[in-house]
Amino acid sequence: MKEPTLFIGPMSKNIVDAIINYCNNSTEDLSIGMIPSRRQVENTGGYVNNWTTEEFCNYVKSKTNKVLLVRDHGGAMQGYSEDDGLDSFVEDCKHFDIIHVDVWKAFPDYKDGLQATINLINLGIKENPNVLYEVGTEESIRPFTTEELDNLLTDLKRELSEEAFSKIKYAVIQSGTALEGNTNIGSFNQDRLIDMCSVVKKHGLISKEHNGDYLDNTLLRTKFDNGLKSINVAPEFGQIETKVLYQLMDDTTKERFYDICYDSNRWVKWVSDDFVPEDNKEKIINICGHYVFSNPEFLKLKGGLPVDIDNKIKLTISLRISQILTHLT
């Protein structure tokens, strides 16, 4: 399988199917990574089609061999509950190709985070020696300087066995991305990107950036021209599906869609403290519509929309995938 440059959050079954179809129908030698978070797909079930980890991975693998399955943000405190993440991690080892070991929400102190990363990788090797790993985290969880990233990779190489370190494939770099609502509010630092990508390359790993959503196509190209090898895009695709749905709704249906989104409370983490939901109903829907696609009330609402709505959604998603890949390559 060719190394993906684009990794997409599977925010819905339509997005999963669109990625599978795009890869299978492409005349080029390409693959795409899917990066479900623990909230989206979990051993106990997630908000994406109510899939468990096993159900999700089996579904994708039954449809294609051109998708790399990557657990995004695997570790403690990354699910809906304040847990140690071990049950989830052990299940991930049975099904995913790569696990992003992200302990930094629970262990922001460098030494604690380093040790927790080592512990999970060693556990993973015992559970399944074929699984590969991604290390580091995004700025919104725990900012890293270039020096800290270099120290992390150096310390992992020293503390892990040679075989264990060889299982690390990706390292997360930070160059100024941050999401708020349906906007990327980060300030791009090109020098930081260049320096971090150089560090990752020095250690023989592949650089990967998170929160690549809502970026100008020219900026995407600039990042890759300056050394970035892969990028994650997630909420943007959920918003694409939401917008297609919204455009086909009447005022009554839109109001009900808003109520379902508001009641879910999933929008809270994406907005500022002074955000007023009642004055931003469409924005609430755009922010968190994808969280409720499997909600029984939403499914009833969707049943009143045109029968070909899912085909429209998948086509729109495929067009955006093609556009992004064009600028990454």
Describe the structure.
The chain is an alpha/beta fold. It folds into two domains: 6-235, Alpha-Beta Barrel (TIM Barrel); 249-305, no CATH class. Helices cover 47% and strands 12% of the residues. The protein has 13 helices and ten strands. The chain has helices spanning 13-25, 53-63, 86-95, 110-127, 146-159, 162-165, 190-202, 217-225, 235-247, 251-264, 281-288, 296-302, 309-328, and strands spanning 6-8, 32-34, 67-74, 98-101, 132-135, 168-173, 179-180, 183-184, 206-209, 230-233. The strands form two sheets. It has an eight-stranded parallel beta barrel with strand order 1-2-3-4-5-6-9-10, surrounded by seven helices. A hairpin with a 2-residue loop joins strand 7 (179-180) and strand 8 (183-184). Helix 2 (53-63) packs parallel to helix 3 (86-95) and helix 9 packs across helix 11 (281-288). The longest helix is centred in the last third of the chain and has 20 residues, at 309-328.
Radius of gyration based on Cα positions:
19 Å
Give the full name of the CATH homologous superfamily of the largest domain: Aldolase class I
Structural class: alpha/beta
* Element order: H for helix, E for strand: EHEHEHEHEHHEEEHEHEHHHHH
The second-level CATH architecture of the largest domain is: Alpha-Beta Barrel
Query: What is the CA–CA distance across the termini?
Result: 17 Å
Helix content: 40-55%
**What is the residue-averaged pLDDT?**
95
Beta strand %: 5-15%
Strand neighbour order, sheet with most strands: 1-2-3-4-5-6-9-10
CATH topology descriptor of the largest domain: TIM Barrel
Q: What is the CATH class of the largest domain?
A: Alpha Beta
Biggest sheet layout: 8 strands, parallel, barrel
Instruction: Report the uncertain regions.
Output: none
Total beta strands: 10
Shape: globular
DSSP summary: helix tally: 13
Could you say how many structural domains there are in total?
2
